[in-house]
Prior knowledge:
Blueprint: H1 11-15, H2 18-24, E1 29-33, E2 38-40, E3 48-52, E4 56-62, E5 68-74, E6 93-99, E7 101-107, H3 108-115, E8 118-119, E9 122-123, H4 125-150, H5 153-165, E10 172-174, H6 177-184, H7 188-200, E11 204-207, E12 210-213, H8 216-222, H9 225-237
Antiparallel strand pairs: 1-7, 2-6, 3-7, 4-5, 4-6, 8-9, 10-12, 11-12
Amino acid sequence: MDTAHSPNQNHLLAALPTAEFERIAPHLELVAMPLGDVLYESGGQLQHAYFPTTAILSLHYVTESGASSEIAGVGNEGVLGISLFMGGNTTPSRAIVQTGGHGYQLKARLLMEEFNRIGGRRAGVMQHLLLRYTQALITQISQTAVCNRHHSVEQQLCRWLLLTLDRLPSNELTMTQELIAGMLGVRREGITEAAGHLQQAGFIRYRRGHITVINRSGLESRVCECYGVVKKEHDRLLCDVRNRQEFPLTGHA
């Protein structure tokens, strides 16, 4: 594996005890994830699960007319491909790369073998970890639907910026207003106005294709409760996710 990259950059992989990790490590394939790359289409058969490290992936629901909006994001905190172990091999959503970077792919068959592995009378650590993550992802999807229906474009933009920041090592985002509008399913003019308000307030600085968050606390003061609900549920379900290298594990994650 490339020494510049490590599976431990993904929180779920880093939380696996040594024995579980060593079973799948030889099969984890480092892949580049360029901005805009489509990892799977709606209704397509899933061949791999993806564990992002530096990339951020976006799940979109696409209507019959071709319109789409984001229903959830997946970064280094999670995995793309939950339908593999939730009873189906396809999904009605499209997965595209929102922020370019890297991640690791694992063949669907190998993920299922580890997910279904039984140790003694108990299910394996991988199963417990993935199911807890799935519950957190369902919360994110549900809250996104509520937010899109009931909250202002500015509040939605603040939520999206904060969730994206949580997955990045810096306060710099490479993203055009047009792409953000597509993510949120709103008109570009709405994003332009909302971003303008946030820039005037001194919370962000925007220049062609780049957003710098100057005052995160300011964004948190403008965001709706949806961001807090998603973050709190993720922290509650995955609060004991730890790095195997820092905390050697012999039992559950």
